[in-house]
Write a sequence for this structure.
């Protein structure tokens, strides 16, 4: 509920009163679980990055070829905006409101996720499946492109998530694959 409110109203404009009203509990009840509103946002951010990393690790653990693994990691990243919209968009848009130490922690988690993807792309390069690129720059650029889907995608809108995934992956994979 908090993630939905943060997505719809923005973190600064969502009060604990809004959250407790939406959930149907009292402020003392929410304070039992969270000391402050920032704790809720922090939990949303950490949960989101952990989910992305878990999905990526599960994909890499399969017997698929490296190109298909990378493709599926990016597809899973895009799909979050359809299946877990409130959390995905709250993380992407509102993480900047975390305190500096928490923002750094969340940023470091995101860097680990990015590094994990870079390792897969580097493997594809080593196998000759992907062309030689600066994986740090390219994977970071792809990540930025994928995260911004949350700025315009609406699950109830005219754009089908599977068509979006296909279009983005066609573009990304043609940029990565060796000619």
């Amino acid at each position: 509920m908090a993630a939905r409110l943060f997505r719809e109203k923005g973190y600064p404009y969502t009060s604990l009163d809004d959250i407790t009203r939406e959930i149907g509990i009292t402020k003392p009840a929410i304070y039992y679980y969270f000391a402050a509103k920032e704790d809720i946002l922090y939990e949303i951010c950490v949960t989101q990055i952990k989910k992305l990393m878990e999905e990526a690790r599960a994909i890499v653990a399969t017997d698929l070829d490296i190109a298909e693994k990378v493709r599926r990691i990016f597809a899973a990243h895009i799909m979050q905006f359809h299946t877990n919209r409130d959390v995905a968009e709250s993380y992407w848009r509102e993480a900047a409101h975390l305190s500096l130490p928490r923002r750094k922690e969340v940023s470091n988690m995101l860097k680990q996720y990015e590094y994990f993807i870079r390792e897969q792309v580097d493997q594809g390069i080593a196998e000759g499946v992907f062309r030689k690129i600066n994986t740090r720059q390219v994977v970071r650029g792809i990540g930025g492109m994928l995260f911004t889907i949350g700025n315009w995608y609406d699950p109830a809108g005219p754009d089908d998530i599977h068509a979006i995934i296909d279009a983005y992956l066609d573009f990304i994979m043609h940029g990565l694959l060796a000619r």
The two ends are 47 Å apart (CA to CA). Residues 8 and 58 are 31 Å apart (CA to CA). DSSP finds nine helices and no strands in the chain.
